[in-house]
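Quick one before lunch.
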Amino acid sequence: MKKGLLMIAGLVAAASIQAEMHKKAKIYVAGHRGLVGSAIVRQLKDEGYSNIITCNHEELDLRSQQEVYRFMHRERPDYVFVCAAKVGGILANRDKPAEFIYDNLMIQSNIVHASYHFKVKKLLFLGSSCIYPRDCPQPIKEEYLLTSALEATNDAYAIAKIAGIKMCQAYNKQYGTNFIACMPTNLYGPNDNFNLETSHVLPALLRKIYTAKMRGDKEFIAWGTGAPFREFLYVEDLADACIFLMNQYDGSEIVNIGTGRDVSIKKLVEMIKAVVGFEGDIVWDRSKPDGTPRKLLNVDRMRQLGWEAQTDLKLGIEKTLAWCDEYHIFEGY
Ligand code: GFB
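Model of the GFB complex:
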């Protein structure tokens, strides 16, 4: 990771950045069992942070204002990473919009408001690249937010995430809080969701291709046409970026986090086939949606802050497959 001083005109002066998190500061990672939260907890521990607090879903329903208040009152964290969210791939988003909008609005509103109420020093809210208009120019700059219509397959989720961004900005403006927000591109890695109905494309294809190989199948099914382009960020790079922002960035402007490179879904299939060592054929199920044609983030702002992604896509797929092997994720296929 490269660290540097802020150089973005109009964002915030380097001199005004608050101190980095103390290694003994109380840090609450909401959503610590998920793809992003678990990676942030691992990275915080690796960097020597010793007072990380988490709470299981069974003990704390983040959709309940009362429960969140009780928890924050008891724990009084200094820093909060808002990684808890209802997330899913294209079909889950398309078919369950009510769950995506309700769960996300409730979770983030409760955490953000309680963080203000209990005087959290700094909070990082995670959005998503799907907050941007479907047909906006590529690569997508932060200022394209709310310039035209959203992609229909995930507009409920996107609206919830946009509300989260606006909430952080409004609280900073009215209450003087220090709530920052970043927009990660499509993520993958250890602790991803590998359920074929609800997952994102990369874990789904990894599972499909791996199981096709193990079963000795001649083909496997991928969704859509394979024509759309997506950008993929290894989750450990995202965790690194989030901790970097917590320590190095103050400001209400949102910050994109990605690699700055994208691939077609067809190309992604070829890469995963090569990593898994499967030589069979792809059958494209065109009854499934393609979604937005392209979603590549402009990552200049993050680069100017001094951070860049380190893991190339092939290496990230290899690491993810190694993790799946180690934890027997595909057992009983
Ligand atoms: O990752 P994904 O589900 O979501 O799908 P989005 C990306 C592309 O991969 C689509 C194709 O064009 C799919 O048709 N695809 C091919 C597959 N085979 C498969 C498969 O087996 N499973 C899946 N899931 N896709 C999501 C949003 O959009 O991206 C969320 O719905 C969120 O809200 C997330 O923003 C990051 O990239 O289209």
